[in-house]
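Treating backbone geometry as a discrete language has practical consequences that deserve illustration. Part of our work consisted of pairing the sequence of a single chain with a tokenised description of its backbone. What the numbers capture is local backbone geometry rather than side-chain detail. For completeness, the protein is quoted in full, as a sequence line and a line of structure tokens:
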Amino acid sequence: MAKTSGNKTVKKAPNADKLIAIYMDYVLEHEKTPRSVYKFAKDNEMTEADFYKHFGSFEGLRKAIWDKFFENSMSVMEKAKEYATFDNREKLLTFFYTFFEVLTANRSYVLYVLNEHGQSLKGLDQLKNLRKKIKSYAKTLIQDGNREKSLKLFQQNEMIFSEGVWVQFLFLLKFWMDDNSPAFESTDIAIEKSVNTVFDLFDNTPLERVVDFGKFLWNERMA
């Protein structure tokens, strides 16, 4: 809400969430990223100081958008009472399902920024903070699982597992970007099969799911 000072109306400075919303709308409406903080601020009736209070650059804001996607996903999951009772496999499945629901709600923006420079997903600087968050989440899952195993021999390597989950996320992200199925049903199948595969490999159980997953990827690739 605007404040009135004498005869002059002073517009309330936007908070971080509002800045993110304004930025995402700008990118979608103009089909380009803004060139300068000065012009962006002026076009949206704010000052540069209003922007710099929350972000040091557009780069920082873009990373914060992915942070927000992650935080929103975690918030949705943790509000569900049954989530705390899930085993690690179910928790990771729930995370990916929830995260990609959040991405789908913002699909136009996500597709634009990921395709903007034609970079490989691995090289996208805006995903750096997200990588840390996803790996940290994966480590927490494994730490919980390892505490339940009395023998060190059966404990899982946190570093390898967390890196594997990140690579898995990149694969799923690319899959989702290319998915043309109704309601992105193929992405849901890919999430289920890939998570089951990762846990089967780490639990050293029979690898039928690995073969099944390979067949699924091959069929999707050849379709």
